[in-house]
Design a protein that fits this description.
By secondary structure, the protein is α+β, with helices and mostly antiparallel strands. The chain has five helices and five strands, in the order βααβββααβα. Strands 1-2-3-4-5 form a five-stranded mixed beta sheet, with helices on both faces. The longest helix has 17 residues.
Length: 156
C-alpha cells in the first residue's frame, strides 16, 4: 500500500493528538502519566487552538486511511532585519514514524514537506531538539548544531 503525505486540517486534531502521545511515549519512555485523560485534553486544546491561530502546522503520513507518521511546526514571529524581510522562525516538533514503518523514507518525506513550507510561511530558520534516532535524518537535510543558542530552563 502506498504511503501518502498530506497537510493536516482542523478535522485531524484527534489524529494529531494520538500521534503526539505515541511520539512522547517513544522519546520519553511510556511513563505513566498522573491523569492521562487530563493530559490528553490539555494536548487537544493546545493543538486545536494553535492550529486555528495558524501557529501550528502538521503533516501526516497515511497508509490507506491509517496514520503512520507525523511532523509539526510551531511558527513564531521574529522582527525583520534590514537585509531580510522574513518575520518567522519555526520549531520542528512531533517527528515520529510508527515503529513498523520506519526506514522506508517516510520520516524524510514528512520532513521534506515540512521544510518545503518555508517560503509560504516566511520562515527564516528551523530549530529542533534531536533524539539519537533523528540526528542522521536531520543532518542529511542540512541541520547542524548551533554554538550560539543558549537556554535557561525555569523550575516549575
Ligand atoms: C526519527 C524517525 C522519525 C525516522 O523515521 P523514518 O521513517 O525511519 O526515517 P527515514 O526512513 O526517512 O530515514 C531513517 C533511516 O532509514 C534509512 N532509509 C530510508 N529509506 C530506506 C529504505 N527504503 N530502506 C532502508 N533504509 C532506508 C535512511 O537512510 C535513514 O538511515 P540513517 O538513519 O542511517 O541515515 C523515527 O526513527 C522515529 O519516529 N523515531 C522515534 C521518535 C524520534 O526520535 N523522533 C525524532 C525526534 S527529534
Amino acid at each position: 500500500v502506498t504511503v501518502v503525505v498530506r497537510a493536516a486540517t482542523s478535522e485531524d486534531v484527534d489524529t494529531v493528538v494520538a500521534l503526539r502521545l505515541e511520539f512522547l511515549d517513544a522519546v520519553r519512555g511510556p511513563a505513566p502519566r498522573p491523569s492521562d485523560d487530563d493530559f490528553t485534553d490539555r494536548t487537544r486544546s493546545f493543538v486545536a487552538a494553535e492550529q486555528r491561530a495558524g501557529r501550528l502546522h502538521t503533516w501526516l503520513a497515511e497508509e490507506g486511511s491509517h496514520p503512520v507518521g507525523i511532523v509539526s511546526l510551531l511558527v513564531w514571529p521574529r522582527p525583520p532585519l534590514p537585509e531580510d524581510e522574513r518575520t518567522a522562525d519555526a520549531y520542528v516538533i512531533n517527528m515520529y514514524v510508527s515503529p513498523a514503518h520506519r526506514r522506508r523514507g517516510i520520516g524524510r518525506r514528512l520532513l521534506d514537506r515540512c521544510l518545503g513550507s518555508a517560503g509560504e510561511l516566511g520562515i527564516k530558520r528551523f530549530q529542533l531538539h534531536s533524539t539519537s534516532d533523528g540526528r542522521q535524518l536531520y543532518e542529511s537535510l542540512g541541520f547542524a548544531p548551533s554554538s550560539t543558542w543558549m537556554e535557561l530552563p525555569v523550575p516549575p
